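Worked problem 6 (solution included).
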Amino acid sequence: MPIEPMEQPKGRKRLTLAAVVGTVTAGLLLTNIPKDESGRTVKVSIAENGEATVRHISGKQYLKAYLDIVGVATACDGLTSYKGRKITIRDQFSEEQCAVMLEDELVAHASDVMGCTPGLALTIPRRDNVRFAAVSLAYNIGTRSYCTSTGRRLVNEGKIGPACDAFTRFNRAGGRVVDGLVKRRARERAVCIKDAV
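Solution. The predicted structure is:
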């Protein structure tokens, strides 16, 4: 059964990423996740109502599923599942489907991250960059791993610099350190640490 982005029930507004993490963090996530997951460049605009438009500029789009570094079927911008259904190697999507699926999965991950990290609340000033790093990390490693991490605990304690450093420990895949993950964690840390000063 093919995966289709779900229609929103009539009369209900779709939850936007901006509503969950704020406009600045949503823009960072929607710009950087495609870069980190697929190496592609996108242009993101977020309307006043929080709806995001992501336009492909350059780089490969993975509209057909492929096997990642540890053999997991992956599509679009790092999606290994969508709304609980695993991606299969036979899956294929349109650019529009990938954009909707990316935001839906980021909303799900961000909601979990915000739920287990009260230290990232939208009411706390200077947390946009930490929110970006936390959600980006959770999107890559899973929310269960993020929500039990030392980095999350340190954010909740207000120890932002040490939290940013702790996020960099997630640099392994298949039991070995992976250069791409080391570089990704360094990029996330570089953004995260801006909130530590």
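Discussion: The first strand starts at residue 41 and ends at 46.
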